[in-house]
């Protein structure tokens, strides 16, 4: 449910050749470094077979009394909520209340193509339903409560992006509608279904449907960083529901995903359907690469909160991250956590930057286009800092690490300019893209 960055980030990937011991002290040093440089606030956990091997919390829950985060702190988990929603849909199928191939016109006749769109299409983002968080108007109402009728009307006013089941494209609207379907078939609010079907049976004491943030319940506010940490506005939970409004923490999340893959929530047959990847999408899950392994999981973002969760069946290990303030790339943190578990090396970050004159920065200004990504990035300057803005997206600051190299750590973006050839190379998630000046 987050505002878009330049690209959707890949959860964790790493290539390593040498082995080391599980260095949890190094992880402690990493989080000390991140916190002291205003790069990360949040909690993490590594678990294997239900046993927590490592947990850490840094940062504060609010800006007023600077109360420290602990392992009991709870966070909004954004789109990881979709894993819970998908699991509950499969529970409803197993309870004979739904079928994956039934169309949604019975529930939402006003949705374009509702007679062609199946519940399966909603689950794996093949519905063609427009993603309402892509609309500029979304940011005018996201903090206000909405009824089902209001939300369905908002979703229904947009034309379909493509013919149902012809391709895949991520849409939060799919899981908002799935939340309403659950409420209709069980005749209960989403939060109550979540409690009855998942959290109570599994003993997840820190996981529930969110409401207004309450510090007295060990919840926390979220923040973004400019020159200092600034409190974010709250999305009203009635809008995302099971697409992004669940509250949890890392230890609950690792127990949830390990229980899911152990067959404690849905059957192995249902799990196989849920984890079948088609054009990059499963049903409430994505495939997660790390080293030579393949896991499953999801990421999330809402307001200033961000999260990541993954599970690797071959090792029965899960890793979770929940954050209420991020000025760094969660991918790199997940790589560090997984590398530590698998006894692989990882590099500690360096936050050294250099100051360049306005005259030196002006050499890099202009529009740069990539044929590979069909995207243009505009590079501008404000005082003594460069900013970049991709087509249709918000601008982001660039910190100089060398005279020709700049980084945006929050999204793991590195840009290296090649002035003689009038081009720049953008690196993100281990992939490089050439942009030529136009």
Automatic annotation (TrEMBL):
Record-listed E.C. numbers: 3.1.1.103
Give the matching Gene3D superfamilies. Answer: DD-peptidase/beta-lactamase superfamily
Tell me where in this chain the Beta-lactamase-related domain is found.
43-328
Q: Which SUPFAM superfamilies match?
A: beta-lactamase/transpeptidase-like (SSF56601)
Peptidase S12 Pab87-related C-terminal domain location: 356-426
Q: Which Pfam families match?
A: Beta-lactamase, DUF3471
**InterPro entries per UniProt:** AmpC-like (IPR050491), Beta-lactam-related (IPR001466), Beta-lactam/transpept-like (IPR012338), Peptidase_S12_Pab87-rel_C (IPR021860)
- Protein name per its UniProtKB record: Serine hydrolase domain-containing protein
Q: Source species, please?
A: Flavobacterium buctense
